[in-house]
Specification:
The chain is of the alpha+beta class. Helices cover about 30% and strands about 15% of the residues. α2 runs antiparallel to α14. The chain starts with 6 loop residues before the first helix and ends in an 11-residue tail after the last helix.
Length: about 450
């Protein structure tokens, strides 16, 4: 996390743990952006269980499935996830809704299933939906060059080609935004790197610096991939792609992204607890989850072997028990269309089921959204939508992460069933035991959503 970190090391961190907002790797199943923070706890359950938590999700599941999910959620919370919200709607009866938290966190906030939550990169699916709505209206073309919309704002590739001195590949000879299309931004094949761990941006990511970033400024500090990659050559997850898409959408419509999201998504779907954050503030009168990350010393240990983190470098915020930091005051507004939304488990499931069941996009655009490219970390990535293979079958959705917040929300292929697992930390579950517990919970929740028992070989410890 220092200015001396090499680009290649940055990528490894990005794909592993540090990429707080929006890293999506789903290798081996569903434990992805749930690179959440951990911490231990007293093992107390939430004081505010959902009234609907006792309702069966489908015949043959019911109380037993709910009890199992509750046990796994509490184990995850006590083992490093700090706090967990689980919502499973199997499309048959009332959803299972539950919240569990480590005991020491109760003095900060009693977590409840309907608490607001920073959903991070799940925002990308909303952004992609808005883009594809404009495509259907012939206002944007998927094959439009980015330069058409953002002249001079997107850099790509570097001059040269062939071999540099010493035989090292010098990189692709490109024309920046002239070679990158809207489709490439949507499926992360643009060739752009990510700005998250650049020396200019890192202090804002950790909350050590308070600054309001505009998408243009983030694109200006976005580095090339290492080694440089030609547009369309491979999938490389980058938040810069969606910062560019925000500018394109705003230019095509003449409307600010936050207003467009309200007009086209949250208001029609009655998502009353969802909005694009403009700062770190939460609406008055609304309950929200308190997020945590490991303190500087714990974080250094978590990242050891990946990067040598200088002593004292960590997230800004009040110290909390068990070597944690309260990150709720870190401003997420920089994420914008790439990951700036606040929502609830129920609201986000409502959006995702409406999308996947064909209520937000024409059939042609829905087909384009589901057309995936291979993700090096496993699964497939479409246009703002992830295809994930779980122990019980394929699901669709996205993951998200911001300092103190990690989320996974999915539906089945028809959009009739949905599952959300929201975790109040993003780095702690990089610790081995916490990662195991978190994955066990997400796998079990996905299987419950699909109406199948978790295969014995995949059962969590």
């Amino acid at each position: 996390m220092s200015a001396s970190i090499s680009t290649s090391t940055r990528r490894r961190i990005l794909r592993g743990a540090v990429t707080v907002a929006l890293v999506t790797g789903m290798a081996g199943g569903l434990a992805a952006c749930s690179d959440s923070d951990d911490d231990g706890g007293s093992g107390k359950a939430s004081a505010k269980p959902s009234a609907s938590a006792s309702a069966p999700t489908s015949a043959g599941q019911g109380a037993a499935a709910e009890k199992r999910l509750g046990e796994l959620a509490q184990k995850a919370a006590d083992g490093g996830s700090t706090g967990v919200i689980v919502r499973v709607d199997s499309g048959n009866g009332k959803p299972v809704e539950l919240a569990r938290q480590a005991g020491w966190t109760e003095s900060d906030h009693r977590i409840a299933p309907d608490d607001q939550f920073r959903v991070g990169s799940n925002t990308k699916t909303v952004t992609a939906t808005l883009v594809l709505q404009l495509v259907a209206q012939h206002k944007i073309g998927l094959d439009d060059p980015v330069e058409k919309w953002l002249p001079g704002k997107v850099r790509g590739g570097k001059a040269g080609g062939g071999k540099a001195e010493g035989g090292k590949a010098e990189g692709w000879k490109g024309k920046g935004g002239k070679d990158i299309t809207v489709r490439m931004l949507l499926n992360h094949t643009s060739g752009l790197g990510d700005f998250l761990l650049t020396p200019e941006f890192l202090p804002s990511l950790t909350g050590q610096q308070k600054r309001t970033w505009r998408p243009e400024e983030l694109l200006a500090i976005t580095p090339q991939q290492d080694p440089p990659t030609a547009p369309g050559e491979k999938h490389f997850y980058s938040n810069a792609n969606y910062e560019a898409l925000q500018l394109i959408v705003e230019k095509a419509t003449g409307t600010k992204m936050a207003d467009l999201i309200e007009e086209k998504i949250t208001k029609p779907l009655k998502m009353k607890d969802s909005f694009l954050a403009k700062n770190a503030a939460w609406p008055s009168g609304k309950q929200h989850v308190t997020g945590y990350e490991p303190d500087a010393e714990r974080l250094r240990g978590i990242l050891s072997g990946t990067v040598d983190l200088p002593k004292g470098v960590g997230f800004a915020g009040p110290g909390r028990p068990k070597n944690n930091v309260d990150t709720v005051a870190i401003d997420p507004s920089w994420a914008g269309a790439a990951g700036g939304m606040v929502s609830t488990a129920q609201d986000w499931e409502r959006f995702l089921t409406a999308l996947m069941s064909g209520k937000l996009l024409p059939e042609a655009q829905m087909k384009q959204m589901r057309t995936t490219v291979a993700d090096p970390e496993g699964g497939g990535y479409g246009l703002g939508l992830m295809k994930v293979d779980t122990p019980c079958g394929t699901v669709w959705g996205h993951t998200g992460g911001l300092p103190g917040y990690s989320s996974e929300v999915y539906t089945d292929e028809s959009g009739k069933r949905s599952v959300a697992v929201l975790t109040s930390t993003n780095f702690g579950i990089k610790e081995k035991s916490a990662a195991v517990s978190n994955k066990a919970l997400v796998d079990a929740a996905a299987c419950t959503m699909l109406g199948k028992p978790l295969p014995s070989g995949a059962a969590a410890e």
